[in-house]
Amino acid sequence: MEFDTIAAISTPPGEGAIAIVRLSGPEAVAIADKVFQSPSTKLLGEQKSHTIHYGHLVESDSKEVVEEVMLSLMRGPKTFTREDVVEINCHGGVVSVNRVLQLVLRNGARLAEPGEFTKRAFLNGRIDLSQAEAVMDLIRAKTDKAMNVALNQMDGKLSRLIGKLRQTLLETLAQVEVNIDYPEYDDVEEMTRPMIIQKGEEVRSAIEQLIQTSLQGKILRDGLSTVIIGRPNVGKSSLLNSLIQENKAIVTDIAGTTRDIIEEYVNVRGVPLKLVDTAGIRETEDLVERIGVERSRQVLQQADLILLVLNHSEALSEEDARLFETVKHMNYLVVVNKTDLPGKLSMEDVQKHAEGKSVITTSLLLEEGIDQLEEAIAGMFFGGEIESTDMSYVSNARHIALLHQAKATIEDAIEAAGHDIPIDMIQIDVTRTWEILGEIIGDTVEESLIDQLFSQFCLGK
Ligand code: GDP
Ligand code: ZN
Prior knowledge:
The protein has helices at 28-35, 94-106, 116-123, 129-140, 144-154, 157-181, 188-212, 214-222, 236-246, 278-284, 287-291, 293-302, 318-327, 347-354, 370-382, 397-417, 423-441, 447-454; strands spanning 6-9, 18-24, 36-37, 51-58, 65-74, 85-91, 110-111, 224-230, 249-250, 263-268, 271-276, 305-311, 332-337, 359-361.
């Protein structure tokens, strides 16, 4: 495949000590040579690959100096895109970095589309689709754990696993063919069906395991959407603030602040909590009052976790009971706050309403009980154990959907093999499973989907 040479600013927008303009493509080195002057006067084209050069960028005609830069020269195929890559490190700052970008665009590069560098790495065969998606996850990773998941995926762990399953399916299909073509034994059927069932079960249970990791994967990726509810004055804002103070808030540029829901991320023992509508709780004390009954029900329904706060110094009220009723079928924890005050709340009452859910007692005023609360939260979602870093969670919605499809299809094959369904019908199901799994790693995927996936990337990646 022939590509042109693309360029983009690869560092985030805004002020920074340095910024990087990246060039990739067959003309990358030649374009850089048109505008780069180093004290050594040697052309980049004559320099060794994977070297760094100090010098100035100049206008190609007037030789007017544009910027002082460090330039990395990396020839393909040992680069991110497998093409020749030049990275120009210039001064941070919007004006300076844009001048550099404009300069290389004027000299023959084309402005890259979002994700185009990664797309090239994929199209040039350096990474597969799930690895490309991992790059995207890495950019968005909000916690160390999310980062590890993405790194593992980028490293090809998921790809290798999927590859192994597909290999098993192929071998099964081949064996079926052999049995049909060379019926050395009397009954081909008798050999073939149990084999399909056994191999099918193997694949099915591996897929199931992958799916089981997906809930955690989604949480790691998107954050555990958490809503704090409770009557006025029980300590919702105090709880929110102590969660934020204890766990350094995660900086994020998630679009959310433009809607009426505001999200804030904190990292609780490796579980990223997305505290939803915190501003609503802060400003008016009441979720319902701020965004209306319908909307707040929606917010609750979409929550992965609800923290229901009660006041230890007051008896359980009707309103409290109603809140218990609302969250009945949801994932929630009870926080009994203000334990420093004389108790009027019957813990028996609370336990009865909570129906086996955890009840944590806190005095946010005295900063007591927060540790236990955090432990309970982490325990709910990670079985209380700190996961090893080499877990390979499936966290991508597209992958999860495909795994569900693959599971259903292989189950069809297993079911059919156990009944009187003709072998060639079963072969179709097995083949289909192989294809669906291939879509995860981009082996059997349509071009339009690829374009759409890569367009979700940030510019310059
Ligand atoms: P919200 O209306 O549910 O958001 O409650 P706030 O967090 O605004 O707290 C209401 C009042 O209770 C404030 O004056 C807090 O300082 C106080 N408060 C919060 N937690 C505790 C606690 O554990 N003990 C005591 N004694 N007061 C608390
Ligand atoms: Zn409040």
